[in-house]
């Protein structure tokens, strides 16, 4: 198996474990997938969430407030891969599966995530930047910064 394919499979496995952890309310497990100084930066929340204790509380709050959310990561694309870091871009869909009115599922948000991982030796997320669909992406060339 090629080294790039091994990294890709590790990233896919990471996303599956992380999504299931937050969806199940496993806040400690979700936060442990970040580096101790890890950052979750999303426009849905007023400030970036930084560090293990804050990440744990954030995950508890997300699950407590919306226990029927599912985080679905797709279109995973590897960027730079080095011996100690991996850059990944992907789409993250937030889906609600419990709607008392219709019994159906509803896509709440479509986002693009840019994740910077550290290899310690296993992947740990150091920084996640979330950009909502239709918003400027500061990681793209030519993006305007306000």
UniProtKB/TrEMBL annotation:
Gene3D superfamilies documented for this protein: 3.10.450.50
Organism of origin: Nocardioides luteus
InterPro entries membership: NTF2-like_dom_sf, SnoaL-like
CDD domains registered for this protein in UniProt: NTF2_like
Domain SnoaL-like, residue spans: 4-119
Protein name per UniProt: SnoaL-like domain-containing protein
Pfam family, any one: SnoaL_4
């Amino acid at each position: 198996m090629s080294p790039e394919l091994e990294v890709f499979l590790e990233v896919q496995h990471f996303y599956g474990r992380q999504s299931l952890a937050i969806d199940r309310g496993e806040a400690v497990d979700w936060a442990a997938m970040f580096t101790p100084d890890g950052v979750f930066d999303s426009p849905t929340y007023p400030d970036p969430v930084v560090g293990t204790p804050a990440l744990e509380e954030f995950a508890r709050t997300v699950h407590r407030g919306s226990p029927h959310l599912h985080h679905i990561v797709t279109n995973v694309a590897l960027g730079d891969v080095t011996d100690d870091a991996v850059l990944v871009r992907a789409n993250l869909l937030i889906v609600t599966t419990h709607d008392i009115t219709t019994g159906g599922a509803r896509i709440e948000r479509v986002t693009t995530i840019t994740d910077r991982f550290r290899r310690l030796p296993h992947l740990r997320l150091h920084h996640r930047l979330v950009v909502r669909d239709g918003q400027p992406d500061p990681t793209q060339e030519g993006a305007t910064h306000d």
